[in-house]
Design brief:
TIM Barrel; 6-stranded parallel beta sheet; single chain
């Protein structure tokens, strides 16, 4: 590729993201008061968008839920059952319900009783309130090999998969990076999680494919989505490097990723899980716009 072609390609890529950003900024700033005005950003809706509340922890949930509803998001996630009433008040769901911690998980049999109780309790709450997914983690390696971790994870999930099927709730196992954010975490390669899902053999046990974490560990995001989409029950976004805004400052091009997800006929949720460095609601509106493909 010559310099002229490269410049043109860079211009097109950056311009498309910049256009979305300008639209979000234009819609989102009250020039008189200098405050963020939240407006509708999602119009197509092929992707059901959600957002992780912990990234916006300074905003009260009731206020945040009202803003998310206006933007066009369908859900807020990584909350507990005590938040369900507030979400329902605004016509939202909890796309992903918390269970146990991420360093002490199902890859060790001595953790099974504690973790499975937390998963069952979350499944019960989800079933009662019509919420779709609960999260789980294998935990850290602590010297354990992949095969043993898979064996123990499968044994644990088989104890609760049938219950999840009866209740109509999906358990998703999160893929995290062990290079930057979560040293020693076991599920840090897609093949590991796919093998767990295959061995459990339940339509209610799937993977939470976190695109930020996967980019750090393996890259090849779109090919992975197309190859393994049947095992994916939930997605997370985030800019790399830094886990901040999913804009032109980072290496992932989310409009293309969202189109790839939509082409698999995915009917679950894509949760934004980036930590905004700029005005938080402007950043969320920007993300909603560029992911509405």
């Amino acid at each position: 590729m010559n310099e002229q072609q490269l410049s043109r390609r860079t211009f097109i890529c950056q311009s498309s993201l910049a256009a979305a950003g300008v639209a979000a900024l234009g819609a989102g700033i009250d020039s008189v008061k200098g405050a963020t005005t939240v407006e509708r950003c999602v119009t197509k809706g092929r992707i059901k968008q959600s957002v992780s509340k912990w990234c916006y922890d300074k905003i009260p949930l009731d206020e945040f839920a009202a803003s998310c509803k206006t933007i066009g998001l369908k859900a807020i996630e990584l909350l507990g059952p005590n938040s369900f009433a507030t979400l329902k008040k605004h016509g939202l769901v909890c796309a992903l319900t918390n269970t146990h911690g991420l360093t002490k998980g199902l890859n060790r049999t001595e953790n099974h009783a504690e973790c499975l109780k937390a998963i069952r309790d979350a499944i019960d709450a989800n079933a009662e309130h019509g919420m779709p997914n609960v999260i789980t983690f294998p935990g850290n390696r602590q010297g354990m090999g992949d095969d043993e971790g898979i064996k123990n994870m499968v044994a644990g999930l088989k104890q609760v998969a049938g219950y999840a099927e009866q209740k109509g709730v999906t358990i998703v196992i999160e893929y995290l990076n062990s290079k930057v954010n979560h040293p020693d975490y076991m599920f840090d390669k897609m093949a590991w999680g796919v093998e767990v899902c295959k061995q459990v053999g339940s339509p209610r046990v799937k993977i939470l494919y976190d695109i930020y974490h996967a980019q750090i560990m393996e890259g090849d995001i779109i090919r992975t989505i197309k190859t393994y989409h049947e095992y994916i029950g939930h997605y997370h976004t985030g800019g790399n490097p830094g886990r901040n805004e999913i804009d032109e400052t980072q290496e992932l091009y989310y409009p293309a990723i969202m189109r790839a997800i939509a082409e698999t006929n995915f009917d679950g949720y894509v949760g934004h899980e980036f930590v905004p460095r700029k005005d938080p609601m402007q950043s969320l509106m920007y993300a909603a716009r560029i992911c509405d493909v």
